[in-house]
Structure formats: C-alpha cells, structure tokens
Write a structure and sequence with these properties.
This protein is mostly beta strands. The chain contains 3 helices and 21 strands. The strands form 4 sheets. Strands 1, 16, 17, 18, 19, 20 and 21 form a 7-stranded antiparallel β-sheet that branches. It has a 6-stranded antiparallel beta barrel with strand order 2-11-14-13-12-15. The protein is elongated and about 85 Å long.
C-alpha cells in the first residue's frame, strides 16, 4: 500500500444519436393504409399508423395489450394502463374513473369519448391492434418496416421507434468506467460548435449500429461498454445531430485527492451488507486480516481508501 495523489478527469470522443430502438409489431388483421415517415414524432394519444383506415394509437405503459379490453373481461394490468392513459388524455376525471385493474361502466364511457375524438365507431371496447404501448410518452420513428397496402402480419415489425431525446455516446476503456458513473455530470463539446452540459444515464454493452455506436468487442471477446449521456439542451443537440456533423467530445470534470492511501481496485472486496474491505497481511501472521475501508476517488485502476490502514501495509491482490 502506498500514499500518492490521484487526479481524475478525462476526454473521450463520441457521437450524437438516439437510444436503442424498440420494435412495434402489428396485432390483429387488416391492411396498412397509412404509415409515418422516418423522423416523425408521435405523442401519447396520437396515431402511429393506420390499419383499414382506422388509427393505431400510441399509449404509454409497461406491457402491450394481449386481448380485447371491454365489459365482462377479467381484471388485469391492461385495464389499468387503458384507464391511466384515458385519464391522462382528458377523457376521464379521477373523481369519475378509478385507475385500477377493473373494467367498469365508467371505463366504457371514457373509451367512447376517446373513440369519438378519433372519429371511429364508439363501441366502448378496445379491439386487438388498436393501440401500441411503449414505456415512454413520445416516440420518434427510426425505421418503417411495413409497406402501404400490405397485410398485417406479412412481414417483420411495423416500426422501429426511439424516445426523441438526443444522447452523446462514448466507448471508454474499462479502467475509465469508475469516472463515468450514472448520474455524473459532464460537458459535451459539439463538432458543429458550442458546448452542452450532459448527465450520464447508463452504461450498456454490445450496442446496435445506430446512434449508440457499432457493435464492438474488447480484446478478450467481451462486449465493449458504451456510456449514454443525456444532453441538457435538446434543441441544440437535435440541431447538431440533424446537421450531419454528429461528432462530440465528452469531458469529465477533474477531481483530485492529494496525499491519500491507494490500493489496486482489484484488492477491494465487497462486504456483507454494504461497503468494501481489503485483506491485509500483518508481519508474522499466517492469514490475512479483513479491514473495512471507505472508498474515495478511483482513477486508472487505483482506489483511494480510508480506514485502519497505514502506508506500507501489504494488501492481498487476487490474481
């Protein structure tokens, strides 16, 4: 164990793009009579596409509908998703319609009001294929897989969509990941000019060939990490992306820890409950002693540690 000064901060080149796309599959039967264009953005409650001249509407929720939703059905989470969307869209009031798993007369009336605004028959029930459910409230069309005049179910997904938010994505080395924890704030310089603050949202692996980067592997064959950074000025980010110059440089603010004890990151052991420890071999002892530590700054595979330790202690580093 040694005492030294750690200084973090890094710059990494990346590019702008959108999150990974979700596929939308058409349900039921019929013919595609209207389809969106690539780049179109659709909000909750608005049509994504048409089948047999009737709209397929975007709803927000955690799972797709798998059955007809109407009177006489058994309780289920699809009813809750329907009622939540109808309430959010203003077709029902919380005082009149309880958002739960039970389909009631009030649910049917709310469905009829919604159907009236769409200009479709007011049946009070939702047939299969009339809504597409996504976990976000606005969708951007990434790819159109269906063709006008073809039958539902004759090909692959109808659409591939993403949230409209623009992200910057970088592919750091593994040893740089501790400086890129989700929630961290960074600065993103755009190739078109200007700088935008960003916030790291997630770290993913084996990304697709869209704005998140190409699929790539590390030398040992494992998937290379990609770090997603949400840009705080979406208007400027979208303008940069649409300009065709999507390059960006991400800068992590520098942090410094002076005259601190450090150990290799691989020496840190997860303790039961929470926290970390290191194994210290004391002079004359046969077995190492586990010492709980508080971990500070981590840079280039070295971790700042605080605890019952001193410079020169021999720490076990697993091979």
């Amino acid at each position: 164990m040694q005492r030294t000064t750690l200084a973090s901060g890094l710059k990494s080149n990346g590019k702008l793009g959108h999150a990974a796309a979700d596929e939308i599959a058409a349900q039921g039967a019929g013919t595609f009579t209207d389809l969106p264009k690539i780049g179109d953005q659709v909000r909750t409650g608005k049509p994504l596409y048409e089948v047999d001249a009737q709209p397929v509407v975007l709803f927000r929720g955690s799972r797709p509908f798998w059955r007809v939703v109407g009177k006489g059905m058994s309780d289920g989470p699809d009813v809750r998703i329907l009622e939540r969307n109808l309430t959010d869209l203003g077709h029902a009031k919380a005082a009149d319609l309880a958002v739960d798993d039970h389909f009631t007369d009030a649910t049917a009336e709310a469905v009829k009001r919604w159907q009236k605004t769409l200009g479709v028959p007011q049946t009070g029930r939702v047939e299969m294929g009339r809504v597409a459910v996504l976990p976000y409230g606005e969708a951007r069309v990434e790819e159109v897989g269906a063709k006008l005049g073809t039958a539902v179910g004759s090909g692959g997904p109808v659409l591939k969509v993403t949230p409209p938010d623009v992200y910057a994505t970088i592919k750091p080395n593994e040893e740089e990941l501790p400086q890129l924890a989700p929630g961290s704030k960074v600065s993103v310089s755009l190739d078109v000019g200007g700088s935008i603050p960003g916030k790291i949202t997630s770290i993913i692996r084996d990304t697709g060939p869209d704005g998140l980067g190409e699929k790539s592997k590390t030398p040992d064959g494992s998937a290379k990490p990609a770090v997603l950074i949400l840009l705080m000025d979406q208007k400027s980010a979208a303008a940069a992306l649409n300009s065709g110059r999507s390059g960006a440089t991400v800068t992590v603010p520098e942090k410094k820890a002076a005259d601190v004890l450090v150990v290799p990151v691989t020496a840190l052991l997860a303790m039961s409950g929470d926290g970390y420890g290191v194994e210290v071999v004391e002079p004359g002892a046969t077995d190492p002693k586990l010492v709980r530590v508080e971990v500070g700054l981590i840079v280039a595979n070295q971790a700042e540690v605080r605890g019952q330790l001193k410079e020169g202690d021999k720490v076990v580093v697993p091979q």
